[in-house]
Specification:
- This protein has 413 residues and is of the alpha/beta class.
- The strands form 3 sheets. The protein has an 8-stranded parallel beta barrel with strand order 3-4-5-6-7-8-9-12, surrounded by 5 helices. The protein has a two-stranded antiparallel sheet with strand order 1-2.
Length: 413
């Protein structure tokens, strides 16, 4: 008789345990083989460390006020580049809003760094140039090492400002101005916010390649671009031997799913463009007829369409009212499910977004350190979002995007 025993060695390689003591004496020879089990990744170990519970049996999420590193925080490669970013980033547009003082903004940023967040996103479209100026001051005051954080800022194409379009002149001047305001020698990622249909794509990609060649930026990406525009930029980069974009920043939450779940994973697999999401916290508080208050996404309700016909306007009004009622019902059910899970609807929305594999970095905003702390507690909810919970959320939302069937050119004839 031959007995094979596998001794699982520790990750440090120490294998000094003697297993012969537990083997009873036998007349037959015993052969002992020792083999090493593959070392599980830290991600898998933490994911399976949580208890998988059914709906209604989860205790409240514990608050870790003294935690230096947020449980559940991961670091992922952005796109198919080598840049490692935290799966939760800090969007600075609400931090540097007029209602937030400098001391509050500094407290939020310090809490983010202490929690393990290493990405800060700036948006000229929302907070103007103040965010870059204030962030630069806080970084200089805190004395953080330049290698420990990642800055993303946007080149905004707007018809409301004097600097319009995405010409080579505007791109280079915008990057140089951002560097001066941030008091930095380079920016990690420059995002082109919206595409410019009046500017040739070749000029845009050549200008971004020049910015990277000069060392003003390490990478570049896009924000609110369509898949067709992203593919056009990639094709031009390959044609003219320019640096390709590594990320697309787009809206993603329970009521906005089509682009993020159908098309951006395809962009990642084909051309290596990653996905940086925003939107779970872009919620507004609405009142129902019963006096209840619900969290609703701002972009979930359709805006009033321009119509010159009063009949069409009445039809659109009825459709909007019906859509509003459906979304209120879904939001109420999501809130009820969140209570069963021991969290609020906002935390469930954050955890639900992070649960989807295409999301490599989710941007969160806050107007106070307490709000950011509560948002980060959603990371502890991830192990509890079992298959049953995710199916229940899908049942409530009932809006899983489906790719339309291909249209045959023969059928069109």
């Amino acid at each position: 008789m031959s007995v094979v025993l596998c001794n699982v060695a520790s990750a440090t390689g120490n294998d000094n345990n003697n297993n012969n003591d537990n083997i009873s004496e036998d007349s037959n020879p015993v052969t002992i083989y020792r083999c090493r089990a593959p070392i599980a990744s830290l991600d898998c170990m933490e994911e399976f460390s949580g208890r998988s519970t059914s709906l209604g049996s989860n205790p409240a999420i514990p608050v870790r006020n003294n935690a230096t590193t947020t449980p559940g925080l991961r670091y992922k490669n952005l796109g198919k580049s080598g840049l490692r970013v935290s799966n939760v980033g800090l969007g600075t547009w609400p931090i540097f809003s007029p209602g937030v003082s400098e001391d509050q903004a500094e407290a939020i940023l310090r809490l983010a760094v202490d929690s393990g967040i290493n990405l800060f996103d700036l948006s000229e479209a929302h907070s103007g140039t103040r965010a870059e100026i204030e962030l630069g001051k806080i970084i200089q005051k805190a004395g953080w090492k330049r290698t420990s954080y990642i800055i993303t800022t946007k080149i905004y194409w707007s018809t409301k400002s004097e600097e319009r379009g995405l010409s080579r002149k505007h791109i280079i001047e915008s990057v140089q101005a951002s560097l001066q305001r941030l008091q930095l020698s380079y920016i990690d990622i420059i995002l082109v916010h919206k595409a410019d249909s009046m500017c040739p794509m070749e000029e845009i990609v050549r200008a971004m390649d020049y910015v990277i060649t000069q060392g003003w930026s390490m990478y570049w990406g896009t924000a609110r671009w369509s898949p067709v525009e992203i593919m056009e930029a990639y094709t031009n980069c390959r044609q003219f031997n320019c640096v390709t974009p590594i990320v697309e920043q787009a809206e993603y939450h329970m009521f906005c799913r089509e682009k993020a779940e159908l098309y951006l994973p395809e962009m990642y697999n084909k051309i290596g463009v990653g996905f940086m999401a925003w939107g779970p916290l872009s919620m507004c508080l609405g009142d129902t007829q019963n006096g209840e208050r619900l969290w609703l996404p701002k972009g979930s309700l359709k805006t009033k369409s321009q119509s010159y016909s009063w009949t069409e306007d009445e039809v659109n009004k009825e459709e909007r009212m019906e859509e509003t009622r459906r979304i209120y019902d879904k939001a109420r059910d999501i809130g009820t499910l969140a209570e069963k899970l021991g969290c609020n609807a906002m935390q469930l929305s954050i955890a639900w977004s992070l649960k989807h594999e295409p999301v490599q970095c989710l941007l969160l905003g806050a107007t106070s350190a307490e709000q950011l702390h509560q948002s980060l507690q959603a990371l502890q909810l991830l192990p509890r979002l079992s298959t049953g919970v995710m199916l229940e959320i899908e049942r409530i939302l009932d809006n899983k995007p489906v790719r339309p069937p291909p249209i045959s050119t023969l059928a069109l004839r």
